[in-house]
Amino acid sequence: MSLPSFPIKKVLVLLILLAVPGTLYYLLKEKGQNRYRPLPIYGIKQVAKTFHIKRRKQIPDTIYHIIRDFKFLNQNADSISFPADSNQITVVNFFYTRCPVFCLGMNKEMARVAKTFNNNRLMRFISISVDPDNDSPSVLAEYSKPFVAENKKWDFLTGDKTLVYAIAKEDFLVDAIQDNSNKLNIIHSPMLILLDPQKRIRGYYDSSRGQDQVNLLIDEIKVLITEELRNIKDR
Fold it and tell me: Dihedral through CA 225, CA 228, CA 232, CA 234, nearest 10?
């Protein structure tokens, strides 16, 4: 009795069907690990005197620009420290309640981001007033009502004016300048600034350029969350 014969095409198709699941598993499991593009780190970088080992080679460590520790009052007159939790990712912007131009739109975009991550324990949001002479906690409490109603992890901060301006320029690397021609006008950045748990700047997103920039921020927060979860797992 002769064995049944199979056309060569059917044999090839069968082999491909058997091979594909294993190949996909290998690519996803082995090649897919840690194969995402990390976000840039902004600010001045310095080569440290210490090293780490990678693939049996000594690689010099890098000292990155980081945000200093600071403490301001929020809209509830509570003292808020930065950072409050070393595992938290933070989005920061600068604004003031009497802002005649883009602050309201900027904070509406900030609210959209905050709402997206409202249930994520790794996220926090901070808006710092560049007009602390006017923006007392009670003024911030009234202004922030529509924003914090749905976003409990959002603090509107006020503090010493000299320190606020120094932090904006020296730490967050953005403008905060009193307009000498108009005392009610303060020149400041429309950027939403993304910080990692190590207090390093990982992205700037111009809220005045429409939703595309803020959509990019939302996407890149997800990248940073993935990075932090992997770091936590490796600790």
Answer: 120
Residue 42, number of CB atoms within 10 A of its CB: 18
What DSSP assignment string belongs to 192-234?
Answer: EEEE-TTS-EEEEEEGGG-HHHHHHHHHHHHHHHHHHHHHHHH
Q: Which residues contact 97 (CB under 8 A, 6 or more apart)?
A: 103, 129, 131, 134, 135, 139, 140, 143
Both tokens assigned to 192: 């939403």
By DSSP bridging, strand 89-95 and strand 123-129 are: parallel
Contact 190, 207 (CB under 8 A): yes
Identify which has the larger pLDDT, 158 or 22: 158
Cβ neighbours of residue 42 closer than 8 Å, sequence gap 6 or more = 65, 173, 200, 201, 202, 203, 204
> Rounded to an integer, what distance in angstroms lies between the CA atom of residue 51 and that of residue 141?
47
Q: What mean pLDDT do residues 16-20 have? A: 47
Nearest to 130 by CA among 105, 112, 103: 103
- Other beta carbons within 10 Å of 98: 14
Is 27 a residue whose pLDDT tops 60? no
DSSP-derived 3-state class of residue 33? coil
Provide the percentage of residues in the chain whose pLDDT is more than 70.
Answer: 83
Model confidence band, residue 86 (pLDDT cutoffs 50, 70, 90): confident
**pLDDT tens by residue, 101-116:** 899 999 999 999 999 9
